[in-house]
């Protein structure tokens, strides 16, 4: 291979991994600007207007306050909810009798929309931070639960049999066999939960909030500021992309034994 | 945006959509046979779309998802400030006692001055927000002197019951519901701000179908008069739709202004005042010229 | 790896096993002395693995009883370790840790695991993922794991099937050596008749779900393939297998 | 085994599979009734009151109307969204270049809360059924997408290699290898989506709805009818349980080859 | 299963393969005639499977070229089918459909698949899930799949390792018969020296990543184990393997 070929190859790689993913977003952006400019799309703020708004919010520092507050709520709720979902998933995944007694109940709770629960949440937890974090917790819990449960249940039976017959301790059975085996599925749950976290947070931030991205977006809706609404939407999607990238890194680290991830790394 | 089913239908099959929030007039109107018969005579049929906030109603109106709507004054100003092509076609007189400030049942708050440092709940961007500011201003206070808690009415009533807030600025029927639970009204919007209900359409529908609007406004006026005469014709329906007792609704209807009319001279003045206030408060960015959005009663029929 | 425990004694009485409606084990009686090394031979699909799984308590028997040191066995067999027919290595643990499972990952397992890994000739692969090993290497890791366990009863299900002739002989030597040292009871399923004779005190043939042949191997250790008795048993075994095979075919044609 | 032993065993089985799951819900119900009766829990309607409300709604037939309308919206949204999520998951799971170009964009969209999108949805789709179904579609799409994608990516590489080397057609590769291999994961996505369907529907039913469970619940919230709010919550959980049971049946049918499900059946 | 196509001719030139920094194949040159049957023998981990995977185009070579009918091979090899060292049966398809993969599930594949299933003695198991089969049964299903394929190049990676002696001989007969009928080119990796001599036209030994031994088997078919040339080649092969093994050990000790 000549040097040129190598650098061509390098360029191609950079294109594939760093540029290709952004082609579609940029196309959408251009379509959006054009259809607003030509009047094909009405009542919607143009990318340019949104950018202006973004700059205003950034210069005033307001945007960082909103992100900061939301991030705190999201993180606390995620840790508690993810933790609970994980623990329940592990319990029910490992014990048939635990599953028998609690899975039905969990499945029933899972299906209750956050929005429908708000009155009860206010009655129980008031309108302060506790209520907001509770809502995020409830939202995040179920995807982690389901995927942990499923992950554990689908660990290769042959490996479980082997571990039992070799008299491995419960602790090692869990840490060395079940957990790593369930990990690919658990990480899917985590990835999904990272999305759900923001989705429920916006509901939570309709209750007596004075800051946070959800507040910013719902407030903008009340004031009908379409540019701010769109700014909030863009913020959500950027945060989503960041969360997703982190989850992917986590996957690469934790699943480095997995042929799927090895091959992706090589290619 | 304008290619919504209802509007395309309205050209071909003359079907249009009325967006409404639940109150005596709109609920009666929905059931009213004469109204539907009059429309049918003109070749129209109606679709109904229910909303639970003024801003969402006007959002739908501005995007031509609905053709007619009712809402309060403050949300309409935000809609206009954000380029929604809406028009005022009718209004009630100001009903000062239909909104006010509630305080906890066994509190020692007696007047506005006592609110200093207290937790006050209201719905942001709403008429209650505006009322709060204006009321405090009269006492030489502003939001810095109190602890505002932004809550939608359904959430606020629960917060009130739990004692998480000291005061609550709200309108009927929540005001009455709060009173029913033993909370006290320490102030209303009397002499502070105007509090009107409005009926709206959007630019396109006004241009294309003024005759339908006229039927609508006439029906609103007629039903308003009937309810004013005898509120008990509306209370069973209201009870069924909302679960609030008929007595509560009686009280609400008695102190409310049910009679609407084509826009008269006071309307523009009040709206302009509110628009200027909002500008001053920094809630909107540019000054609004309200007269270009208000359809005077005669204009509507003259267009024909 | 000292010899603190002795092999268990096994007694199987009238054991039967059905999968659904097909009876795989049709009544097996077998007694194995403590520390005895028994080879199990038989046609593919005759029920050898099933027998081992029953003894390990991994399969519920349909009928019959297994006594271990005269106590009837219920549920899992804590004294047994199995080298399965498949490698059953944990793909997410490196080779060393996989061997460590034989030592229950306890105390100073690394040392023990490393030593066994060396004895199966894979010390260089200790930190690899199992998925990167060749077929025979995987099998040797599984063997190392089983041998590391030092149990009272060790069940081998075709432990050397994926190995070349020479490595195979080395591994046979290793198994024999560790068995002699630790005196566990061993059951070895194998398809290699000479392997059975090389290692076992006693050879049984399973056919049609029952034991059709059972004889001791009275050869001194270390054994020589060229020993006339070796040759004789070899012939005898082949003849037995062939005959059983013919019987089955005749039976199949008749039915 | 004597006859008695057999019937004992049978009873035990009935208990395990049919009664045990309901122990916890019943305990919760009793706790609820007691804490309302004793005044320990205030502002909340008691089970008895909720039951009365339920009977009223049932007798008047209103409840069936709400369920019917919601069910229709949910079903249509589920079919479209699930279908889209599945197709995208398949495309991106099977093709690296498709993934490169669209996955980032999808991950960004996924994170946008339904509630934040409402203004844009109204601008584009109005306030009719289209908007509602669109929202359900958007909500359902992502869990199906993620799990399909993950399922396809984790199909055993050895089996894929085998299929390629045997020159199997693309169609058979998909139907006989990839799809069944990804099925356990896809079904987790479906199960999750069945929950999300109701969750987004309630948001959708805040837009100009006059019936549907979401409408019923949000309307009750407006007017503080706690009994109706709780009735709606219970309805959601019952619907969730039904959906979950269906999903489990589907799992049993489609995954009958899977050792995990075989064992569950035997035990 | 008629003989419409002929085996391919293979020419491998200076092929090398590294995994990371370890070189597994260190330069192999090999020519295989159309329709020739070559057996590959070597120690566990010497690179036999890797060689087969390279020829099948499943592994990227580090250096060198493979010519197939004089055309250099890039990417996957469409003419080749592989019987992998692991069974690689689809757990979610029944046994019959798994065999059908050999026939690309095309045309009247059921008939062909049923016939081959019968030839490997598993016709009764056609509708079972693979997970319910014994180890040897799985291997025979994989063999049936490979033989059903009737390709121009068939690569067997230890096809009979999990089978008992008798079934093994039957299956050797089957392989030979189908090879004779269809005249594909065959590469067979095996650990069983006598199997190699029984089936192959030519035997190569891989050692240290190169071909250390290469000889034809000039015996008429069907072959007899008792034939003196058979015995001679057997001895020669063992000697070769032993020597290579010693060399490696010496080398390992020195380094
Ligand atoms: N993907 C891989 N990454 C790193 N090393 C590998 C990989 N695949 C194989 N190896 C190494 O390459 C060597 C040859 O492997 P290969 O599978 O070809 O052996 P083999 O001759 O088939 O052995 P066996 O008879 O045990 O199957 C082994 O040492 C193995 O550990
Ligand atoms: N879980 C199961 N369900 C149904 N049938 C089974 C199951 N396990 C094994 N069998 C059947 O029982 C028979 C014996 O299987 P087993 O695995 O014991 O054979 P084996 O003697 O070990 O054969 P091999 O030498 O091929 O490994 C086979 O016919 C097999 O198909
Ligand atoms: Mg077996
Ligand atoms: Mg190999």
Brief summary of the model shown:
Chains A, D: Keywords: Cell membrane, Membrane, Transmembrane, Transmembrane helix, Transport. The complex is a heteropentamer, with 2 copies of chain A (267 residues), 1 copy of chain B (304 residues) and 2 copies of chain C (255 residues). Chain B is built from 14 helices and 11 strands.
Q: Rg of chain B, please?
A: 19 Å
Estimated helix fraction of chain C = 25-40%
The multimeric state of the shown protein is heteropentamer
Strand fraction of chain C equals 15-25%
Mean of residue pLDDT values of chain C: 89
List the total number of helices of chain B. 14
**Which structural category fits the helices and strands of chain B?**
alpha/beta
Pfam families (chains C, E): ABC_tran (PF00005)
GO molecular function (chains C, E): ATP binding; hydrolase activity
Keywords (chains C, E): ATP-binding, Cell membrane, Hydrolase, Membrane, Nucleotide-binding, Translocase, Transport
InterPro entries (chains C, E): AAA+_ATPase (IPR003593), ABC_transporter-like_ATP-bd (IPR003439), ABC_transporter-like_CS (IPR017871), ABC_transporter_ATP-bind (IPR050166), P-loop_NTPase (IPR027417)
Which helices and strands, and how do they pair?
The complex is a heteropentamer, with 2 copies of chain A (267 residues), 1 copy of chain B (304 residues) and 2 copies of chain C (255 residues).
Chain A lengths: L2 H35 L9 H13 L2 H33 L1 H15 L3 H12 L3 H25 L3 H9 L4 H35 L8 H10 L3 H29 L4 H8 L1
Helix pairs in contact in A: 2-10, 3-4, 3-6, 3-8, 3-9, 5-6, 6-8, 8-9, 8-10, 9-10
Chain B lengths: L4 H8 L2 E6 L3 H8 L1 H9 L3 E6 L3 H9 L5 E5 H9 L4 E7 L6 E5 L15 E4 L4 H12 L8 E4 L2 H9 L5 E5 L2 H7 L3 E5 L8 E6 H6 L1 H20 L5 H8 L3 H10 L4 E3 L2 H17 L15 H6 L2
Parallel strand pairs in B: 1-2, 1-3, 6-7, 6-8
Antiparallel strand pairs in B: 3-10, 4-10, 4-11, 5-8, 5-9
Chain C lengths: L9 E10 L2 E11 L4 E6 L5 H8 L7 E6 L2 E2 L7 E4 L11 H6 L8 H11 L15 H15 L3 E5 L7 H18 L2 E5 L3 H7 L2 E6 L2 E7 L11 H27 L1
Parallel strand pairs in C: 3-8, 3-9, 6-7, 7-8
Antiparallel strand pairs in C: 1-2, 1-4, 4-5, 9-10
Helix pairs in contact in C: 3-4, 6-7
The complex binds adenosine-5'-triphosphate (ATP) (2 copies) and magnesium ion (2 copies).
One adenosine-5'-triphosphate sits at the interface of chains E and C.
């Amino acid at each position: 291979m000549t040097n040129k070929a190598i650098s061509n190859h390098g360029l191609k790689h950079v294109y594939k991994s760093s540029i290709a993913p952004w082609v579609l977003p940029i196309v959408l952006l251009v379509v959006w600007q054009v259809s607003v400019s030509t009047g094909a799309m009405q009542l919607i703020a143009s990318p340019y207007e949104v950018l202006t708004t973004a700059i205003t919010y950034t210069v005033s520092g307001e945007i960082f306050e909103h992100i900061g507050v939301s991030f705190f709520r999201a993180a606390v709720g995620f840790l508690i909810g993810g933790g609970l979902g994980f623990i329940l998933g592990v319990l029910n995944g490992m014990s048939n009798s635990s599953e028998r007694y609690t899975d039905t109940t969990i499945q029933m709770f899972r299906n209750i929309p956050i929005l429908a629960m708000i009155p009860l949440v206010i009655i129980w937890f008031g309108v302060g931070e506790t209520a907001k974090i509770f809502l995020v917790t409830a939202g995040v819990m179920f995807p982690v639960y389901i995927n942990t449960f499923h992950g554990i249940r689908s660990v290769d039976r042959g490996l479980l049999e082997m571990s039992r017959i070799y008299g491995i301790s419960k602790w090692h059975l869990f840490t060395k066999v079940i957990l790593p085996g369930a990990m690919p599925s658990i990480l899917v749950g985590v990835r999904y939960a990272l999305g759900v976290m923001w989705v429920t947070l916006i509901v939570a931030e309709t209750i007596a909030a004075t800051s946070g991205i959800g507040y910013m977006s719902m407030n903008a809706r009340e004031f009908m500021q379409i540019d701010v609404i769109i700014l909030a939407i863009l913020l959500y999607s950027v945060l989503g992309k960041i969360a997703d990238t982190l989850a992917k890194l986590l996957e690469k680290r934790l699943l480095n034994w997995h042929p799927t991830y090895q091959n992706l790394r090589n290619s | 945006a304008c290619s919504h089913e209802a509007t395309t239908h309205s050209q071909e099959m003359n079907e249009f959509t009325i967006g409404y929030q639940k109150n005596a007039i709109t609920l009666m109107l929905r059931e009213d046979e004469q109204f539907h018969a009059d429309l049918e005579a003109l070749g129209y049929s109606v679709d109904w779309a229910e909303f639970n906030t003024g801003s969402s109603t006007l959002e739908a109106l501005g995007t031509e998802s609905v053709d007619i709507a009712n809402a309060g004054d403050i949300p309409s100003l935000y809609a206009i400030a954000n380029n929604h092509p809406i028009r005022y076609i009718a209004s009630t007189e100001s009903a000062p006692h239909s909104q006010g400030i509630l305080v906890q049942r066994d509190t020692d708050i007696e007047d506005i001055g006592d609110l200093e440092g207290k937790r006050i709940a209201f719905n942001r961007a709403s008429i209650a927000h505006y009322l709060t500011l204006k009321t405090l201003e009269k006492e030489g206070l502003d939001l810095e002197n109190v602890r505002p808690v932004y809550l939608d009415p359904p959430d606020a009533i629960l917060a009130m019951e739990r004692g998480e807030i000291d005061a609550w600025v709200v309108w009927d029927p929540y005001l009455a519901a709060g009173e029913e639970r033993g909370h006290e009204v320490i102030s209303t919007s009397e002499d502070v701000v105007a509090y009107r209900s409005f009926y709206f359409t959007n630019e396109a529908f006004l241009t294309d179908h003024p005759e339908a609007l006229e039927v609508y406004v006439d029906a609103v006026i007629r039903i308003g008069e009937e309810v004013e005469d005898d509120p008990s014709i509306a209370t069973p329906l209201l009870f069924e739709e909302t679960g609030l007792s008929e007595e509560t609704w009686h009280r609400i209807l008695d102190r409310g202004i049910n009679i609407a009319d084509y826009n008269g001279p006071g309307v523009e003045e009040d709206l302009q005042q509110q628009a200027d206030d909002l500008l001053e408060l920094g809630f909107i960015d540019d000054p609004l010229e309200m007269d270009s959005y208000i359809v005077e009663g005669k204009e509507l029929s003259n267009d024909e | 790896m000292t010899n603190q425990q002795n092999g268990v004694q096994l007694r199987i009485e009238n054991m039967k096993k059905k999968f659904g409606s097909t009876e795989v084990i049709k009544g097996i009686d077998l007694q194995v002395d403590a520390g005895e090394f028994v080879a199990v031979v038989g046609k593919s699909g005759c029920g050898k693995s099933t027998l081992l799984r029953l003894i390990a308590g991994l399969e519920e028997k349909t009928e019959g009883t297994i006594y271990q040191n005269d106590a009837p066995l219920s549920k899992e067999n804590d004294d047994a370790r199995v080298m399965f027919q498949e490698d059953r290595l944990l793909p997410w643990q490196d080779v060393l840790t996989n061997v460590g499972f034989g030592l229950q990952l306890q105390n100073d397992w690394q040392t023990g695991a490393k030593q066994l890994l060396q004895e199966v000739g894979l010390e260089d692969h200790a930190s690899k993922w199992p998925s990167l090993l060749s077929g025979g290497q995987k099998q040797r890791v599984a063997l190392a794991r089983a041998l590391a366990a030092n149990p009272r009863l060790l069940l081998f299900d075709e432990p050397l099937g994926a190995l070349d002739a020479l490595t195979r002989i080395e591994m046979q030597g290793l198994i024999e050596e560790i068995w002699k040292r630790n005196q566990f009871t061993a059951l070895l399923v194998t398809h290699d008749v000479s392997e059975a004779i090389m290692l076992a005190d006693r050879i049984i043939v399973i056919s049609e779900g029952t034991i059709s042949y059972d004889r001791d191997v009275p050869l001194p250790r270390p054994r020589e393939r060229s020993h006339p008795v070796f040759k004789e048993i070899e012939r005898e075994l082949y003849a037995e297998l062939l005959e059983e095979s013919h019987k089955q075919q005749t039976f199949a044609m008749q039915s």
